[in-house]
Each structure stands twice: as C-alpha cells, then as structure tokens.
UniProtKB/TrEMBL annotation:
Protein name stated in the entry: Major facilitator superfamily (MFS) profile domain-containing protein
Lineage: Eukaryota, Fungi, Dikarya, Ascomycota, Pezizomycotina
Superkingdom in the source lineage: Eukaryota
GO CC terms: membrane
PROSITE patterns named among the record's database cross-references: MFS
An annotated Gene Ontology molecular function: transmembrane transporter activity
Membrane topology category: Multi-pass membrane protein
Spans through the membrane: 41-59, 79-102, 109-128, 134-158, 170-189, 204-226, 280-305, 317-337, 344-363, 369-392, 404-424, 436-454
Organism in which the protein naturally occurs: Thyridium curvatum
Record-annotated Major facilitator superfamily (MFS) profile domain positions: 43-497
Keyword DNA damage: no
Subcellular location: Membrane
PANTHER family named among the record's database cross-references: PERMEASE-RELATED, TRANSPORTER, PUTATIVE (AFU_ORTHOLOGUE AFUA_6G08340)-RELATED
Length: 497
C-alpha cells in the first residue's frame, strides 16, 4: 500500500483549541490555493452548469402556461397542477437510488445519463398532445433531475466545511440566472416565433425546444470533464485534472481535515442512525419549507405577476426582476455566511425577510408592492436553500448517514412541493397558498432556534469531555476510530452552526 493509500485510511484527527475545532482562521499554502482553484473549475463550475440546465428545463412549464400551453392541450387547472406534481413524485422516488448509483458506479457517467434523460423529456414536452403524455414526461423529468440534486453532497466531499456556503452559492446561483434567462427567452419567443419558423410551432413549443436542446450537449460535457469522487480520483492513473502525487496527497489531507472518510462505503446501519437523529427531521422541515416555497413561488411567479394586470409578454420581462434580486442576495449571503462561519443567524434573518414579503403580498393588491414583495421572497428563499444545502451535509458525519439525511430532507421537500402545486388554486390573490407558506416560515424560525440549541449543546458537551480526558492525561480511545464508525458521535466531530 502506498503512502497516499495509507493516508486515506487514517482516523479522524483535527486540531482542537480550547475544545473547539479550528476551521475558520487558517492560511492556505500556494499549492492548496492552486488546488482549490482547480477544484472550482473542475467541480463547482460543472455542477453549476448542471443546476442551470436543470432549473432551465423544469421551470419552463411556468412560463409556458401564460403562453397558451394549458389552453392548447385542453388541460383543466387541476390537470395542470397534477403535471407539476408528477415532477416531484419522480424526484422523490429516484433520489436515494441516485445516491447509491453515483457512489457505486462512475459518477460522471451517472450524472451525464441523468442530464441527457431529463433534457430529452423537456424537449419532448414541446410535442406532447395529451394530458397523459405530459404526466409521463414530467415524471421522467423528475427522475432525471433527482440525480443532479445530489450535487451538493458530491461537492461537499471536495471542500472543507468552511468553504461550502460559497461553493453551494456558486452552484445554486445558477438557478435564479436560469429563471431570468427563461424570462428573456419567453419574451423573445412570444414576440418573434409564435406560429412561425419550421413547423409553425406555438411559442410555448419553441420554449421547450430551445431550452431542452442544449442540455443534451451539456450532459456530454459533464461525462467528459467531471472528476469522480475524491477517493477514486486520487487512485486514478488517468485523472484529467489531478495528475501529480502532490495534488492527490493534498486532496486526501483536505478531505481528512474536513472530517470526510476516504473510501467510504454504503453502510445501511447508518441509515437507522440518521432516522433516529432529531436534527435530521428538523433540517427536513426547515429545508422543505424554504425549498418548497421556491418551487411553488418560482413556478407560479409568472402567474402571480400576470394577475397584477400585466400582459403575457410584459409579464415575462417582469419575472426577471425577482430573479436578479435573488442572485445578488444569494451571492452576498453565502459569502457572509462562510466569512463568519455562521449558518443559523443568516438563515434566521432571511427567514424574517421572507415573512415580511408574504405579509406584504397578502396585505395589498398594489402591483408595485407585489413586485417588491416578490423580490423580497425571492431574495430570501434562494440563499436560504444554499445555506440549508451547506449546513445539512456538514452536520451529518458518515457517507450513508449524510446521504440518508439528505434523502429524508428531499422526501420532505418533494412532499411540501407537491403541496405547493395544489395550494395555489385561488386566483387572483392566492391567499391560501401565500398564507400556508407564511405559517411554515414562522415555524421555520422556531426550528432554526432548536437546531442552534442542539448543536451548540452537543459541541459544549464534547468540549467538556475533551478537557476531562486532557486533565487525566489519557487519550480518548474513540479518537482512533473513523467517522464511518461513529458518525456524529466521534469525539473530534463538531457541528458548524
């Protein structure tokens, strides 16, 4: 066994000062800085593109609705809502198998196949003629995109915990950009291509064709360029990005410092560990509220704005404004969160911003106030998803526990998202939908406080235990075990809150 392979099996050993893991105040060497820049290019950039095209394709149906999609296919309002719902059904069913597939097989190939599958489903929606065809295509779209959503777990294995909010911000930052680009394309298609061009397609058909086609090419790019999991990449003799032993050794060192275990396997006992953890359920409800708000509010945003009295074409342009606000907020909040090493406080602040936005949109029918409220809500939920995506993996040790926690959270997200496809059924003010989400955000504030309390107390107990062992001059025998053995209970593991 080489030195590199031996180092990947060492137990967890992190620097602890005064009982606290020293993670935030550290200077990177020039070699590590070069490695991180290369990881940003090879991993974060490619995963950002995956998210862009995923949300590019999934959100088109919201813009297509005000372009005549529902009328041309003779769908009732309930049938349209069911089409939205089926996406989340496929997403929920295929999520955990996706975690297993990317771990057991060649991850770039699994990601590429999934991208190509959902891009073809999106493209074929342009040619759907019946309700049943749309239902099946949306189900396939959800199954394909479920794999893309494992990106946060994949990215988390390449970075230290204090680097995650910014990287998740980069990845998820593509989603509001996708929404804004869809608004531009929808406006241009509605104005210049409706009933024109080869086949005389309707504007909504052109939208699905234009947005579905380039995604196939992106799938091939991901297959060719995306690295594997860190433990597999450091052993590969044909690595495209990381060729030197020095780089590979540094990848192993960073992974261990981030409290990851190289060569982790799927351990089904850890699934039960995740199920018993109350933090997992708290994260699930909190993340589901924020992500489902994005799903419901994002898909129905064109409908909300149209109900303010704007024409369909002008509506497409106005949808761009909230997405621009969301992108600016997302970048700013994720950078602040990583700079200060905080998750709970910024998440609580943006939750309050969302609450204010929903109160405004419920309280007044004024169009300007409605646009402002839409901007506030978008500026809250997008960075909220990023903070949750960064916080959840870094709060669950052990690959299978982390994957299970993410899967449980995704089930909650898709359940809440399915609910959101059904509650926005009372136009023009949509009081029921906005009211339900307002109540859930108030609940989320309480959950954030509860998670903060649980994690803080756990860290304090471990700090006290560490001091006790130090005073006795004895080493805690559990320190020789790995995170795969003990998960969060490892004496050197600390939560970031």
């Amino acid at each position: 066994m080489t030195d590199l392979e031996k180092s990947s099996h060492l137990p967890v050993a992190v620097q602890v000062e005064n009982g606290h893991v020293a993670e935030h105040e550290r200077e990177m060497s020039p070699a590590e800085k070069r490695l991180v820049r290369k990881q940003d290019l090879a991993i974060t950039t490619l995963m950002s593109g995956c998210f862009f095209f995923a949300y590019f394709d999934r959100g088109a149906i919201g813009n297509a609705r005000i372009m005549g999609f529902q009328e041309d296919l003779h769908l009732s309002a309930q049938q349209y809502f069911n089409c939205l719902m089926m996406f989340y059904v496929g997403y929920m069913v295929f999520k955990f198998p996706a975690f297993v597939l990317i771990r057991r097989f060649h991850a770039p190939t699994i990601y590429a196949l999934s991208i190509i599958i959902f891009s073809i489903a999106s493209l074929c929606t342009a040619f759907a003629k019946t309700y049943g065809q749309v239902i099946v295509l949306r189900l396939i779209l959800g199954c394909g995109e479920a794999t893309v959503q494992t990106s946060f777990l994949f990215v988390s294995l390449w970075y230290r915990r204090e680097e995650m909010s910014v990287r998740c911000g980069y990845v998820y930052g593509m989603t509001p950009i996708a929404g804004a680009v869809t608004g531009f394309i929808s406006y241009a298609v509605g104005k210049y291509l409706d009933g024109k061009g080869p086949g005389s397609f309707a504007s909504w058909q052109w939208l699905f064709i234009i947005e579905g086609s380039p995604t196939i090419l992106w799938g091939l790019i991901v297959w060719a360029l995306l690295p594997q999991f860190p433990d597999k990449e450091v052993k590969s003799k044909r690595s495209l990005w990381f060729k030197s032993d020095k780089e590979k050794r540094l990848i192993v060192e960073r992974s261990m410092a981030a409290q990851h275990v190289m060569d982790a396997r799927v351990d089904y006992a850890q699934m039960w560990t995740a199920v018993k953890d109350p933090k997992v359920w708290g994260f699930s409800i909190m993340t589901a509220t924020i992500a489902a708000s994005l799903a419901g509010f994002g898909v129905f945003l064109p409908t909300f704005i149209k109900e303010f009295g704007f024409s369909p074409l002008v509506t497409q342009l106005y949808t761009i404004i909230p997405y621009c606000c969301a992108f600016i907020s997302l970048v700013a909040v994720s950078r602040v969160a990583d700079h200060y090493g905080q998750r709970a406080i910024p998440l609580a602040i943006i939750t309050c911003v969302a609450i204010v936005g929903f109160i405004i949109i419920i309280a007044t029918p004024n169009a300007v106030a409605g646009i402002v409220a839409s901007c506030l809500i978008s500026a809250a939920v997008y960075p909220g998803v990023v903070l949750c995506a960064a916080w959840l993996p870094s709060s669950n040790a052990g690959y299978t526990k982390r994957a299970t926690a993410t899967w449980i959270t995704q089930i909650a997200i898709q359940t809440f998202s399915i609910m959101c496809t059904q509650i926005y059924s009372t136009p023009p003010r949509f009081f029921k939908g906005h009211g339900v989400l307002l109540g859930l955000f108030v609940l989320t504030l309480g959950i954030i406080a509860g998670l903060w309390w649980l994690m803080r107390n756990s860290n304090l107990r471990k700090d006290e235990a560490a001091r006790g062992w130090a005073e006795q001059g004895v080493r805690n025998p559990d320190e020789d075990k790995t995170l795969e053995d003990l998960c969060d209970k490892h004496p050197n593991y600390r939560y970031v809150w």
